[in-house]
Specification:
The protein is built from two helices and six strands; from the N terminus they run E-E-E-H-E-E-E-H. By secondary structure, the chain is mainly beta. A hairpin with a 4-residue loop joins strand 2 and strand 3. This is DUF4873 domain-containing protein.
């Protein structure tokens, strides 16, 4: 196992992004993991290219709330990649379900 391997949780699918009081329907790919060194859960991902988001964010960092069918969280959008997919990241409770016991981990694996 390398120093960058993590047991990651995640969510892929539709979501709603609230940026500057504007709701935007998006598609997102999210992942996350618990960081034992500082004790925080870190989640992150990419928002599929979206013209409305691109016009609103204009390539700049923005605070945002993301809502999925599994939950919501506050995070930050950062610079888009060359394919106009914005990165989103946050710390603490993620906008997706995280297993809290080994029974839940085994149930999602099967």
């Amino acid at each position: 196992m390398s120093e960058h391997d993590h047991d990651e949780d995640g969510y892929s699918g539709p979501a709603t992004l609230l940026v500057s009081d504007t709701e935007i329907a998006i598609e997102v790919e999210l992942r996350g993991h618990f960081q034992p060194i500082d004790g925080y859960y870190r989640w992150y991902g990419r928002v599929k290219a979206n013209e409305q988001l691109s016009a609103l964010a204009a390539g700049r960092k923005k605070k945002a709330e993301i809502r999925t069918p599994q939950g919501s969280a506050t995070g930050e959008l950062s610079d888009p990649d060359p394919w106009d997919r914005y990165r989103i990241m946050g710390t603490s409770t993620p906008p997706f379900t995280v297993p809290v016991s080994l029974d839940e981990v085994e149930a999602t694996a099967s």
